[in-house]
Amino acid sequence: MRPQAAMGERAWRLLRCSSPGEIATFWTVLIVLYLLLFILAMTFGIGYSQHIVWCGEKWCAVFDYQPLLWLPILFLQTPLPVDEWVYILWWYLLAGLFTEAVFVADRLVAGRKVRRPRERSAPPRPAARSVR
């Protein structure tokens, strides 16, 4: 039972912050990535585009959304974004996943670069003297 618990502890250790500076960096990167996703989603031509098409008797505006930034539209089945909180939560989720992936990758790369001292099991014994 103990080796499984140790494996679980090692996996969760990658997701935990180890210092206050790392916590502050995590939240700063998360907020910056959220703002970046928000700006990209709201930028015409990047997050969405609009086409005017003939709809029988009149002209209609048709929006094409970038799938990664506007994924909740597929689940809500609405032509326009109606519930803003759903998209805000989606962008926070994306920003959190990207931020955590960056931090885990950084820890894994940094862990490979750091050389840990080898542990010695016991100091070498001095040679035995022979008495004659």
Based on the model shown, name its key terms:
single chain, alpha+beta, 4 helices, rod-shaped
How are the SSEs ordered, and which strands pair?
Elements: H1 2-13, H2 20-42, E1 48-55, E2 58-65, H3 72-76, H4 84-113
Antiparallel strand pairs: 1-2
Task: Please explain how this structure is put together.
The protein is α+β, with helices and mostly antiparallel strands and 132 residues long. It has a domain at 19-109. Helix content is 53%, strand content 12%. It is built from 4 helices and 2 strands. Strand 1 (48-55) and strand 2 form a beta hairpin. Helix 2 (20-42) packs across helix 4 (84-113).
Unreliable segments (pLDDT under 50, ≥5 consecutive)?
none
Q: How many beta-strand elements?
A: 2
> Into which percentage range does the β-strand content fall?
5-15%
3D shape: rod-shaped
**Rounded average pLDDT:** 76
Structural class: alpha+beta
Separation of the first and last Cα atoms: 55 Å
Into which percent range does the helicity of residues fall?
40-55%
Number of helices: 4
The biggest sheet amounts to:
2 strands, antiparallel
Strand order of the largest sheet: 1-2
Instruction: Return Rg in Å.
Output: 27 Å
Order of helices and strands: HHEEHH
